[in-house]
TrEMBL record:
It comes from the Bacteria. GO terms for cellular component: membrane. This is EamA domain-containing membrane protein RarD. Its main location: membrane.
Length: 306
């Protein structure tokens, strides 16, 4: 009976991860549409994405457990994680204004490779030759994806690497300091930290006249609705991922995370008329294989340790 319950929970976790991978690329597509069609700057998109996330998370927390539950156990840790998410959001939304959606998401999936590298450097975790080999091969795949975009977009094509690095540092902090607060409280302060980070970026964008980092209100009700939808999707998607991680092991969930690339390809094709070239497919395949192996290998090592 316990095994049946465990299996049922794992199936539920996989379903939640798959659902999250369906919704999150929709949020990214909305961001791309707003910046390319409605001329809303990437920084403005990022501001409202995190601002609405913080508002929604706060309202849910108050409705469920009261105002006192808004106080976090680790304020500064949560805010700093929000700063990292804000930096990652700014980099990613600036990138997809110019780059194909699938390309940017594929480059972002170098994150497990960065996490392995940072874990060895900062946390002094032992990384064997097999995982170092997977890291090296994965970075080769990243270069294959980036190279055509570099020729077209220059430094913009490296921005998804900034997003991947920010998220890897975010996960390092989770490993180092744990998750003392509830997922909703963490989402609330991730939203607050991301909002504050974006406000700083907007200030410097105005000072140095960087068009992608300047503030501008959306032009119509549809754009406002889409910005609100981004906040809803962000809150729902990350809640699904967190719950999935509690119900199923990372090694089981890992392959389903790459559904995000598949969804991004489909959205790019049908909404923006974008489709990866053969060389980019090769790079994507290498990144996916390397990342999936690293996650599987880490899960296996943890099982052996247990």
């Amino acid at each position: 009976m316990n095994m049946e319950n465990t299996t049922a929970q794992q199936v539920q976790g996989v379903s939640m991860m798959a659902a999250a991978m369906f919704f999150l690329p929709v949020m990214d597509a909305i961001a791309k549409w707003l910046s390319t069609v409605d001329s809303v700057s990437p920084a403005t998109v990022t501001l409202f994405r995190f601002g609405f996330q913080a508002m929604l998370a706060a309202m849910i927390i108050i409705a469920m457990t009261g105002v006192k539950s808004l106080r976090p156990v680790k304020l500064w840790g949560n805010l700093f994680r929000g700063v990292l998410m804000g930096v990652g959001g700014l980099c990613f939304y600036a990138a997809i204004k110019y780059m194909p959606l699938a390309d940017a998401i594929a480059v972002f999936f170098v994150e497990p490779l960065m996490l392995t590298t940072l874990s060895a450097i900062l946390l002094k975790e032992h990384v064997g030759w097999r995982r170092w080999t997977a890291v090296a091969i994965g970075f080769i795949g990243t270069l294959i994806v980036i190279q055509p975009s570099w020729e077209l977009f220059g430094w913009v094509s490296l921005l998804p690497l900034g997003t991947a690095a920010s998220f890897a540092f975010y996960l390092i902090l989770n490993r180092r300091y744990g998750t003392a607060d509830t997922t909703l409280v963490m989402q609330l302060y991730a939203g607050v930290g991301g909002t504050l980070t974006t406000l700083v970026a907007l200030f410097f964008g105005a000072v140095f006249e960087v068009s992608d980092m300047t503030f501008g209100l959306p032009a119509n009700a549809l754009s406002w609705s889409l910005l609100l939808a981004m906040g809803v999707i962000a809150t729902t998607g990350h809640q699904l991922i967190t719950n999935a991680s509690r119900l199923a092991p990372a090694s089981l969930l890992a392959p389903f995370q790459y559904l995000e690339i598949v969804m991004a390809v489909l959205i790019g094709l049908f909404v923006f008329s974008e489709f990866p070239t053969a060389s980019k497919w090769l790079g994507i395949a290498i990144i996916v294989a390397s990342g999936a192996y690293l996650i599987w290998r880490e899960g296996k090592k943890r099982e052996e340790s247990a």
